[in-house]
Design brief:
Helices cover about 25% and strands about 35% of the residues. It is of the alpha+beta class. It has one domain. It is elongated, with a radius of gyration of 22 Å.
């Protein structure tokens, strides 16, 4: 009986220790999300019409983003220079997607990356750049 109890205690301890394991990537992901949601990082959001290949909307700043799947929209809170907050909503559809880039976290990660869009992957469409 004592062996069964010890086996159960050992199995429970092993299960708890394995579920408590945390990878470095998940810790970094959590920390970056917290920094961005506390308006410490600069983010850039780009909303793209996948049918036309057009950039519909782009916003850069201290942004907190929540994806509201019930209403199929993004809820965006922005902090301006004066420390005031504004809330924006972006409606999403089957043909509209978005990308969020954290453009101030270079001091968190030692590796540099780039993000490139190729509109011809969606449609053979010429993209015009408007300055």
């Amino acid at each position: 009986m004592k062996k069964k109890i010890m086996t159960l205690v050992f199995a429970a301890a092993l299960t708890l220790s394995l579920t408590a394991c945390d990878t470095q990537a998940s810790r970094v992901s959590y920390n970056l999300s917290q920094e961005a949601d506390n308006f410490n990082n600069i983010r850039q959001i780009t909303v793209i019409n996948c049918l036309q290949g057009d950039v519909l909307f782009q916003m850069t700043g201290k942004i907190s983003i929540t994806a509201d799947t019930a209403d199929n929209q993004l809820e965006i809170i922005v902090e301006d220079e004066a420390g005031n907050y504004k809330k924006h909503f972006i409606g999403l559809s089957d043909n509209v997607t978005y990308v969020v880039e954290d453009i101030t976290s270079s001091n968190v990660n030692n590796y540099k990356y780039t993000l490139n869009f190729n509109p011809k992957m969606w449609l053979p469409y010429d993209v015009e750049t408007i300055d």
